Amino acid sequence: xxxxxxxxxxxxxxxxxxxxxxxxxxxxxxxxxxxxxxxxxxxxxxxxxxxxxxxxxxxxxxxxxxxxxxxxxxxxxxxxxxxxxxxxxxxxxxxxxxxxxxxxxxxxxxxxxxxxxxxxxxxxxxxxxxxxxxxxxxxxxxxxxxxxxxxxxxxxxxxxxxxxxxxxxxxxxxxxxxxxxxxxxxxxxxxxxxxxxxxxxxxxxxxxxxxxxxxxxxxxxxxxxxxxxxxxxxxxxxxxxxxxxxxxxxxxxxxxxxxxxxxxxxxxxxxxxxxxxxxxxxxxxxxxxxxxxxxxxxxxxxxxxxxxxxxxxxxxxxxxxxxxxxxxxxxxxxxxxxxxxxxxxxxxxxxxxxx
Length: 355
Known about the structure:
The structure is a single chain. The chain has about 350 residues and is an alpha/beta fold. It has two domains: about 10-130 and about 305-315, NAD(P)-binding Rossmann-like Domain (Rossmann fold), CATH 3.40.50.720; about 130-295, Dihydrodipicolinate Reductase, domain 2 (2-Layer Sandwich). The chain contains ten helices and 15 strands. It has helices spanning about 20-30, 45-55, 65, 85-95, 110-120, 135-145, 180-195, 280-285, 300-310, 320-340; strands at about 10-15, 35-40, 60, 75, 95-100, 125-130, 150-160, 200-205, 210-215, 220, 230-235, 240-245, 255-260, 265-270, 275-280. A seven-stranded mixed beta sheet has the order 8-11-12-7-13-14-15. The longest helix has 21 residues, at about 320-340. Residues about 350-355 have low confidence and may be disordered.
């Protein structure tokens, strides 16, 4: 799209000014080769305040103004979930490269509409699965590719935080398709699929343990959305996975915790043993836990560098749009399984369990 090392910096507009906008603005700057040229928020007062806080020179209240601007090459869509489909489809139709915040959309049908818009556009569509780009995840993917753990028997994924306290739309059914599964669990679903392959069978249990929440600004929010969920998955080769999702954890999990148990070894990510740890004597020659030396760079730099390389045409488009749909299909299977008490298969799978 904009290939060449001497090409001018990519001008990016961030549509949405909430908490996650900080991550995208700072990550784009850390990646280099791009500038955040505009920030969009529905409220003029909020747009002005947040653009000043983030050092963005221009703000708008109507995203269509940045889509109509030929000087803007790409957009980050970081708006409430119920607007993802409309904004992403409009951006792709306008020829803007899109980085779409997870969850991809409210449901699988909206995801498919976005995918269709992506196929019809010359501009690339990417879904923002930030955890893929953590150094420890890259390390584990290599460990698995090398077969250091042998056949995988069991996986434990935990996604848990105290829950969003900066905006009430996270707990409003009109704006979201679900609670902790959609807001946090889709990260874990994507990581499991990214590392271990497709999820072919789902069982689940869920509850709303905290129906009332006090937001940071003092407002009391009432919600019937799920905030604690346990799902189990069937993975390729007969491996089993347990996926814990919580929006009520006081402390314990830093974004996610992942434990992998194989025939020849064990690997842990983001646990009390550090960012990554491996116990595999047959591979390491040591009867002890080994902690790898991982690369260090500013938060979000690797993620946004990858996206910007796609925007420039230096790297091929990745699988995140299809993975975004698959994550929603698994999430919808979780809701069905929790409601029916039966095992469910994610929709849209063929006989081999692939989308």
